[in-house]
Amino acid sequence: ATPAPEWAKPNVPERTEEGRQKRGAKVGHEAHHRPPPPRIDETQEIRLERCPRCGESLGRPFAIEERVVEAIVPGHVRVTKYRIGRYRCGHCHKVRRARLAPEVAPPRSRFDWGSHFLVGYWSLQGLTTSGLQDLLATNYGLVVSAGTIDAMLRRSAELFAPAYAAIREAVRRGKSVHVDWTGWRVDGINHHLWDFLSPEAKAAFFTVARSAGHTVPERVLGKRRKDRVLECDGGTAFNGLSGRKQRCWVHILRHARRGLERWESISDAPDWRGLRVLEKIARGVLAASRLPEGEAK
Which one of 189, 200, 222, 279 is most buried, by most CB atoms within 10 A? Predict the structure, then answer.
């Protein structure tokens, strides 16, 4: 056989029957089975009329065995037509029109609020707009444009805007706030996902913005707050915020390294003594915490 290339991951060595772990519960442990479904939608009788060997008629069965089979079927769409009446008042002679209850569906939308929330939930699970379109077409037979999905997500966001604002206000009032951001793609365009976590307020606020600069944390947290501890990395986006800052030790170590490595010799750095001490302190803290010096913190 041709040997595998060096970059290929080797196969797991074959194990004997004694070395293989058997499936199911361990010896002496009670087995855990999936509970039976709470509802039976259909019952079918499986009968055998003749013996498959000799062809003799078998008659009625003397015992019945039961087996439950669950089938995942594609969802269906329930379409409701609302006949909205128009009236002419006999007193003022004005034309009056009945209104659909606002909790049924948003104005000028063909989908109810439940469909809006379902699409929003799938979006939170990571489905893209094209993924939502494919899911609705495959499982529900709905051909929906990208603009319709964007409108559904926007309406849901506007409905929960007061709760969103309350979460932001709780994070803003927190005594300590963890802040970080990462890259985020929106319709093929690079954005940034910002997260603001306040343990005391038990609140987490997320926002997506094109900018990775100081305008985002200043808009969310406010610029003037001296009694707050901001836990962040070494990015310059947080320098304009007032109050104490707890920087990440890994980033402190990186800054110390850059300050020393940018010179031909360490002694050429204007503050090489301070950077050397800072590097030793950062290494000591990371070693005591058993944290790697790489990306993981």
Answer: 279
